[in-house]
Amino acid sequence: MVKKMLGIIMVLSLVGVLGCSLTSNTTNTPPPASVRIIREAKIGSAWEMKQLEITVGSEISILLNLVEGDKVDGYFYLEKGNDINFRITANSSVYESKVQDAKTSQGVTSDRFSFTATKEQGIAYLLTLSNASDGSAQPDKVTVFLDIIYPATGSIFIPIETD
Questions:
Q1: How far is Cα 151 from Cα 149, in angstroms, rounded to an integer?
Q2: Which of 8, 14, 18, 70 gives a 20 to 30 Å CA spacing to 39?
Q3: Is the entire prediction scored with pTM above 0.70?
């Protein structure tokens, strides 16, 4: 009986030691992003509008499929946080938000964007939001409100949250 108890204690302590050493060697992963659709609506028969609340851990991209000549309009603003990087890319860079006044220490907190899909850029456009916090290993999450209006013939793909 005593041998069994000692065996159980040794196995439990070995599992505890191995479990602690395994968890201490893991790397810090950035917090996941989450997207919540606040409102979506059809505007006439030709347009769609989506309003999204996006919590950005490190970076999130939204895919927008368009055809040549499609026009897109939108804006975003920070609900929580101090700075966000926003860019639109296709085959090359289409748009990137810049700080309006370099004299102030405040980063990008809101911006409007508008573009027309072209054959040269292709049909897939990525709207990417990157957390521009202090560059720490575990950046604070920022919350962004994004409103986008695009043709009803286009489609938008929003990533699902992964924990």
A1: 7
A2: 70
A3: yes
Burial class (CB in 10 A: 0-12, 13-18, 19+), 66: buried
How many whole angstroms separate alpha carbon 73 and alpha carbon 81? 24
Amino acid at 29: T
SS (H, E, C) 35-101: EEEEEEEEECCCEEEEEEEEEECCEEEEEEECCCCCEEEEEEEEEECCCEEEEEECCCEEEECCCCC
Residue 22: the pLDDT is 47
Q: Which domains does the chain have, with CATH numbers?
A: 34-157 (2.60.120.380)
Render pLDDT for 83-141 as a digit per residue (tens, 0 to 9). Answer: 899 999 999 999 998 876 656 656 788 999 999 999 999 999 999 999 876 555 566 78
d(CA 54, CA 142): 8
